[in-house]
Fold:
Amino acid sequence: MESLGTDGEMKRVVIAGCPGAGKSRAARTLSDLTGLPVIHLDSHYWQPGWQRPSPEVWRATMKELIARPRWIMDGNYGSTLDLRLKAADTLIYLDFKTFLCATRVLKRSVLGRGGTRSGELPDGCLERFDWPFFKFVLNYRRTRRERDLESIRVFSGVSHVFIRPRQLKRFLGSLESGPVS
Structure:
């Protein structure tokens, strides 16, 4: 494993990328390998009934979350990416094709309809198809990707950018099992 912090271990990991890229799954797998706790940002952002917090409340929540000594955070939320990257030692960016991400979002919204993603969404936020969100996924590479890549370019920690799921799988498979101390 690359040297990540002053002691060479991952302690604060940001996983970002287009919705549907597999950020939450990657976070769970990485957590199993490292022992780092996962913070699913969706579960902290959304309020019952898919209500959004104010920008001020969301930034305050994010400041509390990043103050924790160890974590894996999955989710985008571009308005607070700067805070997460300043606190992180490692960034994993899933730069997967639109077709793959859109297919996964569609599958998740249809197969999970009316249910919840345990631990990933708060109570009162049932899985559903949402056309504006799906449009966001379809347009992500054109409208948001460059902003994310610019954040990666100035990130001072260790960055891993994966353009194919098999690259991510290979990376995760290369990590030693066992908790990070």
